[in-house]
Amino acid sequence: MTSDPTDLKVQRLREVGIFSATPEDLLRQLADALAEVELAPGEPLFAKDDLGTCMYVVVSGLVRVHLHDQTVAELGPGEIVGELAALDPEPRSASVSALEPTCLYQIEQATLEDLMEVHPKIMKAVIASLAHRLRATTAPYGQS
Questions:
Q1: Which pLDDT tens digit goes with each residue over 68-83?
Q2: Could you count the other beta carbons within 10 Å of the beta carbon of residue 34?
Q3: Of the residues 36, 56, 96, 107, which has the fewest C-beta atoms closer than 10 A?
Q4: 143 located within any domain
């Protein structure tokens, strides 16, 4: 028995912190608007300074956020990447590459904006995710 691809996307989205409290009907709309991106190990998702207007949800695999050779973070299933560009379409602040075979869902800025307008908790969760990542990234510099 094959499951409906939309059902699978909804199930995977529900496992992502920022979408965990999102009503089913909104997750279905989001699932229908997603594009799937497959990356091979070492393949770039985007490079620093690329213009970005979307964010990604890591469905499976592992990606590396990096500035040249320095790793900023490694992100796996259920985590989001590129959310800053989806909120503020400016050049990307870092590069992202796959460390292993990776599947991601691409969410365009307009789709995310529509979703946040209807369900403000998503906006709060995206901002909290950004704040957490900023704290984690800058924490090593605050140690004495």
A1: 999 988 999 999 999 8
A2: 20
A3: 36
A4: no
Answer whether residue 126 is part of any domain: yes
Shortest CA distance to 107 belongs to which of 126, 86, 89?
86
Q: Answer yes or no: is pLDDT of 105 > 60.
A: yes
Cα four-point dihedral sign 100, 54, 21, 27 = negative
DSSP per-residue string spanning 5-62: HHHHHHHHHHTSGGGTTS-HHHHHHHHHH-EEEEE-TT-EEE-TT-B--EEEEEEES-
Task: For residue 119, name the pLDDT band (cuts at 50, 70, 90).
Answer: confident
Q: Specify the number of domains making up the chain.
A: 1
Question: Which residue type does 66 have?
Answer: H
- CATH number at 22 reads 2.60.120.10
